[in-house]
Amino acid sequence: MATNISRRTLFGYGGALTGVALLGVACTGGETPLPPPVSGGDPAALESPMLAQRVKAGTLPPLDQRLPAKPMIVKPLQEAGRFGGTLRRAQTSAASDTVTVAFCAAGLVEWTLDIKGAQPSLAESYTRSDDNRVYTFVVREGLKWSDGQPFTAQDVADSIQHFFGNKLFNVQPPVYMSDGGKLPKVDIKDGRTLTISFEEPSAMFEKFMCHPGISIQLVKPWHYLKQFHIDLAETEDDKAKVEAAAKAAGFDSWDMYFLDRDDIWKNPERPVMGAYIVTKPAGAQSGTAEFERNPYYFKTDPDGRQLPYIDKIQVQMLEQDALDLRAANGDLDFQAQFLGYSTTQVYLRNAEARGFKVLRWEPGWSLLSINPNLSHKDPVLRKLFLDKRVRFALSHAINREEINKTLLGGLGVLRQPVSTEAEPYYTQGDGDTALAFDLAKANALLDEAGLTERDAAGTRLRPDGKPFELVITFIEDNSEVPRTDAFEAVRRHWAAAGVKLALRPVDKTLYAEVRSSNDFDLDGVGTPENSWDIEPVWYVPTASNSHFAPAYGNWYASKGKAGDEPPAEIKELMDLWDTMATATSDQERIEAGKKIMTAHDRNLYIIGIVRLPFQPVVVNAKLRNVRDDKPPMLFHYGREGVTKPEQLYFA
Amino acid sequence: MATVERASQRTLIWRRFRKHRLAMVGLWLLGLMYAAAALAGFLAPFGKDSHSSDHAYQPPQIPSFSFEHGFYVHPTAGRTDPETLEQVFTEDTSRVVELGFFVKGDPYTLLGFIPGDVHLFGPEDPGERFYLLGADRTGADLLSKIFFGSQISLSIGLVGVGMSLVLGLLLGGVSGYFGGWVDLVIQRVIEFIMSIPTLPLWLGLAAAIPPQWGPLQTYFIITVILSLLGWTSLARVIRGRFLQVRGEDHVLAAQLDGVPKSRIIFRHMLPSFASHVIATVSLSVPTMILAETSLSFLGLGLRAPAISWGVLLQDAQSVRTVVTAPWLMMPAVAVVLAVVAFNFVGDGLRDSADPYGKRSS
């Protein structure tokens, strides 16, 4: 019977098809067609043809009315460019707004090209008082938001008052906007001169203001946002309207709605000061986000061409494999973040044929490390982890050479997590402690620490008779050093020293929960080596999201009201951080920072394993003005933003 | 007097099944696979944990033959080119790794209680490495992993299928045969279970399962829990068939003859829709093998260090593998074979068990 045969045949094909599907799953890409990058235009033009058309049509004022009186002049890294084109990028999650940090930054000041200090940006000049107490910014005259409304110093002052000063957004001012727990004093003189003054010296404020993720929070369009902020509603009637609007938009309270409206990644209506504005946000329906140039952007090249050169940015949401394939196929124009290191070999193979280059930047945040929970709930484990000998033993028991050889072909860098020589906090020799694989030493140290007894399986027994079993909690991630593979190797190595390790890969939500509730033995995570002073929690438990001592961090953040009181050595770290944050001179700050690093180096609070040799960066061969040195790829420096993306162009 | 030939239902099915050529091939294949799974330790050239940091992504080695050495390969050492990041393997042609049958190697225990260290095929010197199907990213022998992977892939997943089947048949049968308030209660329970959203349930389980449990243990429990929830659709179908068959004449006749209920169910009713059940089950087996790793992102699915075909294939699904190490997709062949074999056997069983099917004579 025909039906019989067709069904049976179908079964057979079904089996074969399953196999084909398995093989083919990695080869599928997204759906949206990619526009090829366009370049060209008249080299003499001072504005993008796209904007010139709008001026012609009368929907946009001419260029000289859009630029400030004194535009910021950016010298292109290699050569002056031409207008046009779409920069194609991709990312793995629609929730990640990091593309705005890299490409849409706007701050009073910004990092210099060598990322050592600040240079004026929205401000035309910037000064810091000798005692690190008073910071003065003179805002450029005639700056405009992307909707044409004027930007003034008052916008910054309002951001501090209504955003950082509002308990709903910040229970207490965040560390970068805190003057001993309250807000700093803000003054505006002659409409343009903004002074932010601290009672306690704020040594890190300049760096905070350069951090593109922080500085943009001071640049909020209050002419637009005031309609969503209840404190800015004048009458009771208006306040009720603000609440009602939030409810109507599906939010529980007005502050949630405010944050949603203030999101430059999601809200195309929110005016911006950065180079690009989102025109089509990535949502559940759309797998692609689109950005367009800000017609009022305040930077020009030395010849007076308004930046950015590139008209549009397109960001596709892709699975990791599809993203790697897109990159390998030359379909991404400029991408460092989200690229899988393990696929570098494929990028390199295809680079020439597909018209792109693979640059090797410094990986800023990839040193895979194990953070023992020094504030563990279990007093026995806490005591063991606080014992330096145990930490040294755990470090000596890891065969890093083997992990490096297997996973990174021996190219990785073996280090303990502390600053590198690129940073002033580095002292010669830091980071080399207890790297050597020495099982005998590890065993001797564990014996010394009192873990002499063993059970039948050879696992050491803790002083209370329970087996010395540890669980490492981590987010599975194979885009850098493959974590499961590395920790699996550590499990084998530690077993030889009588320490039993169990791996617990978890998802992001559970990971955050486990850490904030101080409910983990070991936290496996990539640790930043440099610029940790901007985010000290990696090396000093200053908050409950500390990776190696959340309960102490909670104690510090709550000024002793919550969490657990730390032992003297941790208190010393906290004191050193206080000294650093309130230093009145760079020398004092660097001195204290060096001491924190040395303490880490001597005591090994965090156990490093291996770091990537480099961060691959895929760059379209036609894209010009990308830095050709090896800058670090780090959130604090804006990741890809470190190459000043507004002056990139397609040749 | 002429003798009357009698053949039981089972004999009839078996006779018909044996004539089904594809099904017989499938049955043989399955038999071989299960035998290989049972003897994995012996058939695999290396042990479960055996790996070598010098041989990550070693391509497959084809043994050569000479009268002096017998079968042999040249030893290799891997190195990563810092410029291209390619894995470069240099063969040391001055030395040979002699291969032999029934060689001593990594120790293992067959079926959990027979210790041994003799391997069917492998290097004569247990310290040497040899990769017939190449190596994975940790420098472990892929062939050995495929053998060990069959142990999990051909067993644990089937436990879940089996449990769903038993529960579905039992509860669906009871519900359909007795009807009335029993039916009402069971159907409401089914609806309740069907309405439980699975993702929050998994998330809850992910948090509840003690982290000290190994991946195998975790996966087993999850399989069991999922099958405790997964029997409902089968039960619905079975209930429908029971309701349908209950009113037929031969069932009525049996009831009037005073045949016990269990015999009515198992002898008179079940055979008429056994084919449907078989088709359902044989289709869900491959789904189970492929679903092994689907919960890994929550830390619930199978994952390394457990070895299964699903885990091996998950590793193979990266751009790097497809482009630079295609041999890592070999486990797919094993999965395809198993899936096809199960489907052929199921299909054959279905045809032979169907009393209304075409008589093959």
UniProtKB/TrEMBL annotation, chain A:
One function term, GO molecular function aspect: peptide transmembrane transporter activity
Biological process per Gene Ontology, one example term: peptide transport
Record key words, sorted: Signal
Domain (Solute-binding protein family): residue spans on this chain: 119-537
Pfam families in the cross-refs: SBP_bac_5 (PF00496)
Main location: membrane
Topological type in the membrane: Lipid-anchor
Domain of life: Bacteria
GO cellular component, one term: periplasmic space
Annotated localization: Cell membrane
Family: Belongs to the bacterial solute-binding protein 5 family.
Protein name: Solute-binding protein family 5 domain-containing protein
Species annotation: Nonomuraea aridisoli
Automatic annotation (TrEMBL), chain B:
GO cellular component: a single term: plasma membrane
Main location as per UniProt: membrane
One Pfam family of this chain: OppC_N
Keyword Metal-binding: no
Ranges annotated as spanning the membrane: 21-44, 152-177, 189-210, 216-238, 270-289, 325-345
Domain of life the protein comes from: Bacteria
Subcellular location: Cell membrane; Membrane
Segments forming domain ABC transmembrane type-1: 150-346
GO terms for biological process, alphabetical: transmembrane transport
Entry membrane topology: Multi-pass membrane protein
Chain coiled-coil ranges: none
Alphabetical keyword list: Membrane, Transmembrane, Transmembrane helix, Transport
Stated family: Belongs to the binding-protein-dependent transport system permease family.
Annotated protein name in UniProt: Peptide ABC transporter permease
